[in-house]
């Protein structure tokens, strides 16, 4: 319907600030928050009423034939306000307020695939429908949180999906604090189990205590049982590395290899979260693993852009 289309700008050009998206995402305190762009502050579609009259045609009975009638519909500006307030409930950190699919750079094939998987997920997503999520595994500063943020931004602001982002160790801390205030773990886990799309960052982090394992198990099992979509990022490895053949090796060599493979096991997500959770992840998610030598953007930016680097903080828009 015509009124659902984006309002054209008076001069016919897309706004230079929001690129025609009508909203911007910026850092406020430690959060990434969205707001309506100045270009769309005064709605030209509804004149600020928030709703519009739309003409429809329908046949109520064969005898009478098709009839035209008018209905009151939400204006795009009302829809945008709803989506913006939903975005502001997601809980994305300020450090990825600029993150978009457009400004993600791939330095290797795996990063290119990671971007592709996230982009495809976001663009094929149908609100309320079942959708297989993804898990990004890789070393620090390779844009895993960046891609989670770009995906959630698209889902919430372009499709109106309800989403949440949690960093796992902050979640454990929040629940522990809740205990002290007399809240049950379920009070905090409940809404996260039910939200349409949940992104869990830093999966595998923590002390691996029984409390942490039970919390994670409950959250993932509840989402799994309800068929809900969950996205993940982790520094832990998804696949066991190929082990050296140890058959005819001398004892000393074997010992070193044993030590090495034990070290590798400690890097495995499967070891960190346990078989129950790992098995569910296999069904819930498309796996993307970034190799160990993927460059850390925090460091490369520091080293290469330092002389030209300006403090971030201005309005940035979310691309697609
Ligand atoms: N491939 C990339 N393209 C563009 N920007 C990137 C890329 N990788 C990282 N960045 C930027 O570098 C910063 C750190 O990235 P991000 O937080 O997404 O890393 P991460 O993989 O989640 O790291 P960690 O494992 O430490 O959580 C962010 O500002 C992010 O936008
Ligand atoms: Mg991260
Ligand atoms: Zn604008
Ligand atoms: Zn309006």
Automatic annotation (TrEMBL):
Region (Disordered): 295-320
Stored SUPFAM superfamilies: P-loop containing nucleoside triphosphate hydrolases
Start and end residues of each AAA+ ATPase domain: 130-283
CDD domains linked: AAA
Gene Ontology MF terms: ATP binding
Pfam families in the cross-refs: IstB_IS21
Signal sequence, renumbered to the chain: none
Sequence ranges of Basic and acidic residues compositional bias: 295-308
GO biological process: DNA replication
Membrane-crossing segments per the record: none
Gene3D superfamilies reported in the protein's UniProt record: P-loop containing nucleotide triphosphate hydrolases (3.40.50.300)
Family annotation (PANTHER family): ATP-BINDING PROTEIN RV3427C IN INSERTION SEQUENCE-RELATED, CHROMOSOMAL REPLICATION INITIATOR PROTEIN DNAA
Protein name: DNA replication protein
Organism (species): Corallococcus macrosporus DSM 14697
